[in-house]
Design goal:
Layout: H1 5-11, H2 29-43, E1 48-55, E2 58-65, E3 82-84, H3 89-103, H4 130-134, H5 162-171, H6 186-196, H7 201-210, H8 224-227, E4 234-235, E5 238-239, E6 256-258, H9 259-270, H10 278-285, E7 289-290, E8 296-297, E9 302-305, E10 311-318, E11 323-329, E12 334-340, H11 353-366
Antiparallel strand pairs: 1-2, 1-12, 3-6, 4-5, 7-8, 8-9, 9-10, 10-11, 11-12
């Protein structure tokens, strides 16, 4: 997905969301505004949706539709309903990197290092750095060239092993010299995770990020209690299996979460001084690269201007049956996350509905 489309989305973020009389953030207005947001998300084709909002010091989470897509009598999702998170998980990996940098155990300009059997592609005079990976400026392609050779279209990462990764890297060429250009890469973030905690990425994310921030349902392991709360993912109106992945989990390919966890995570982004990860969170939000136009890259996060002139810090995500989007503005202390149990893709000119509607709601609240 081309994150550049968010420049258009952010520039028109209030389109299509009529504010309530007076202030939309009033105690009685916020639930109604979220309800209208959810109605629009469902109208765009999602069986079920959950939205979490932080605004004016208030947290509000609501759901609509169904968790299963099996008719109006099925239970509606809520803040504890489990979705696959998708690429928002990259910001967790970036936070783990930032913690290591703040602890002095690595540097942003440190070169990518993996065990010897994993050849690092190169082009030009300098090597790929950890900062290049975290800002999508490594020159790596989006995926390794051999990923789809034996892939199940409904579960494309499940078959892929570390041996396959070693073979794939031998076939990989960089599209540009490291540090020169922004090009979104799941491969890059997968390698970042392996560089930080080879073959133990899931434990690293748990110990370095989700446990300190109290995100119990943000995990690659679907516990039995989570399985009973999980929404059924859909593609083209049909139920599809969850994505499974071990090699690229740092890219968010197989991470689960809930709206309750994501609201807590966004609250940490808005007020990092209230968390044990203040320095790391602030480092991830700091611009480290400026792409064409007004898109800037933090570590994991993307930064785009809102119509108000404030900055939206954001990431979206998707797997075969789920779509998500999270965005916040520290200047207005406002955050929005939307999670739906259907896949969707943007076109060359239009973003995914879940992304456009999330930014629309953020824009409305940002100016309320």
């Amino acid at each position: 997905m081309d994150r550049r489309n968010f420049l258009t989305v952010a520039a028109t973020a209030t389109a299509g969301v009529a504010l309530l009389p007076g202030t939309a953030a009033a105690a009685d207005g916020l639930p109604a505004l979220v309800r209208r947001h959810l109605d629009r998300v469902l109208a765009a084709g999602s069986p079920g949706a959950v939205c979490g909002v932080i605004h004016g010091g208030r947290v509000y989470v609501a759901g609509a539709g169904t968790r299963t897509g099996r008719g109006p009598d099925a239970s509606a999702p809520d803040g504890r309903t489990v979705f696959q998170l998708g690429s928002i998980g990259k910001t967790l990996t970036a936070t783990a990197l930032a913690r290591a940098v703040c602890a002095g155990t690595t540097r942003l300009d440190a070169p990518l290092v993996l065990p010897a059997r994993f050849p690092i592609p190169h082009k030009g005079p300098r090597r790929i750095t950890l900062a290049d990976l975290a800002t999508h400026t490594s020159g790596l392609p989006q995926l390794p060239p051999n990923l789809l050779n034996e892939a199940d279209p409904q579960n494309p990462y499940a078959h892929y092993t570390l041996d396959d990764l070693a073979a794939g890297l031998r076939e990989t060429t960089l599209n540009s010299e490291p540090g020169r250009a922004y090009a979104y890469s799941n491969l890059g973030f997968g390698l970042l995770g392996q560089a930080l905690a080879f073959d133990d990425v899931d434990a690293m994310l748990r110990s370095q990020v989700t446990s300190p921030l109290r995100l119990p349902d943000t995990t690659t392991t679907l516990r039995p209690d989570m399985a009973s709360r999980e929404a059924v993912g859909h593609h083209a109106g049909q139920p599809v299996p969850d994505w499974r992945d071990h090699v690229f989990s740092a890219a968010g390919t197989s991470i689960y979460s809930t709206a309750d966890d994501m609201v807590r995570y966004l609250a940490a982004q808005l007020r990092p001084e209230r968390t044990p990860l203040r320095k790391a969170i602030e480092l991830t939000q700091r611009p480290h690269f400026t792409a064409e136009g007004s898109l800037r890259l933090g570590l994991g996060w993307h930064l785009s201007p809102l119509p108000s002139g404030r900055t939206a810090t954001w990431h979206n995500g998707g797997t075969g049956g789920f779509s998500t989007c999270a965005a916040f503005s520290r200047e207005s202390m406002t955050a929005v996350v939307t999670m739906v149990n259907t896949s969707s893709e943007e076109t060359a000119t239009e973003p995914r509905p879940v992304d456009a509607l999330t930014f629309s709601l953020l824009g409305a609240l940002d100016t309320a």
